[in-house]
């Protein structure tokens, strides 16, 4: 990967990931740069951000969408209004305003990625066991937050997430673009 001048944090993240023996990012994804971007978007980089970035990468990979920010075929349903959602938005470019990011409040760090061209959909959820796996990964870390932050960058996907192919029936109102109908307020 290439880093622009001044992207010291992204370069450091990349070096740390490689030294920790984490999975090599696929050629289409620059994990350190995406983590840096997600951190800027959210205001800081936290374990939820790392999970959200990796979740978005995994969802897009499973659907074969290599450049989601320039694609108009991706809709994402997020199940929480926490840190991971900001990361999914930063990676995919999906937003509430564009109608490509949908919020369904199930209180889970999970997201369903839908390819509107093919109709394929995949739901990815963080495993409850990922927290403990994070602590086991870096037992020398005194602060659990730091252990999880390091671990989530390096642990294999199958230790962090459950992945299942799902069927999503999109309603006309779910489709991005201009609203299909409007309602006038009686007042």
Write up this protein.
The chain is an alpha+beta fold. The chain has 7 helices and 5 strands. The protein has helices spanning 8-19, 31-42, 47-63, 83-92, 130-137, 144-154, 157-160; strands spanning 74-78, 101-103, 110-115, 121-126, 161-166. A 5-stranded mixed beta sheet has the order 2-1-3-4-5.
List strands and helices in order, with pairings.
Elements: H1 8-19, H2 31-42, H3 47-63, E1 74-78, H4 83-92, E2 101-103, E3 110-115, E4 121-126, H5 130-137, H6 144-154, H7 157-160, E5 161-166
Parallel strand pairs: 1-2
Antiparallel strand pairs: 1-3, 3-4, 4-5
Helix pairs in contact: 1-2, 2-3, 2-4, 3-4, 3-6, 5-6
> Portion of residues in helices?
25-40%
Shape: globular
Helix/strand order: HHHEHEEEHHHE
Q: Reading side by side through the largest sheet, how are the strands ordered?
A: 2-1-3-4-5
Keywords:
187 residues, alpha+beta, five-stranded mixed β-sheet, 5 strands
Describe the structure in brief.
The protein has 187 residues and is α+β, with helices and mostly antiparallel strands. Helix content is 40%, strand content 14%.
């Amino acid at each position: 990967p290439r880093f622009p001048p001044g992207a010291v944090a992204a370069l450091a993240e990349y070096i740390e990931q490689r030294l920790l023996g984490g999975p090599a990012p696929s050629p289409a994804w620059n994990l350190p740069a995406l983590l840096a971007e997600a951190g800027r978007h959210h205001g800081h980089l936290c374990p939820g951000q790392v999970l959200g970035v990796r979740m978005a990468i995994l969802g897009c990979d499973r659907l074969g969408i290599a450049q989601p920010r320039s694609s108009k075929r991706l809709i994402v349903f997020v199940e929480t209004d926490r840190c991971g959602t900001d990361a999914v938005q930063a990676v995919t470019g999906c937003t509430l305003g564009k109608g490509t990011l949908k919020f369904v409040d199930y209180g889970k760090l999970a997201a369903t990625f839908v390819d509107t061209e093919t109709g394929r959909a995949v739901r990815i959820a963080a495993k409850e066991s990922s927290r403990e796996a994070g602590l086991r990964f870096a037992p020398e870390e005194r602060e659990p937050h730091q252990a999880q932050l390091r671990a989530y960058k390096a642990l294999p996907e199958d230790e962090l997430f459950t992945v299942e192919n799902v069927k999503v029936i999109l309603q006309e109102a779910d489709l991005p673009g201009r609203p299909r109908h409007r309602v006038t307020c009686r007042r």
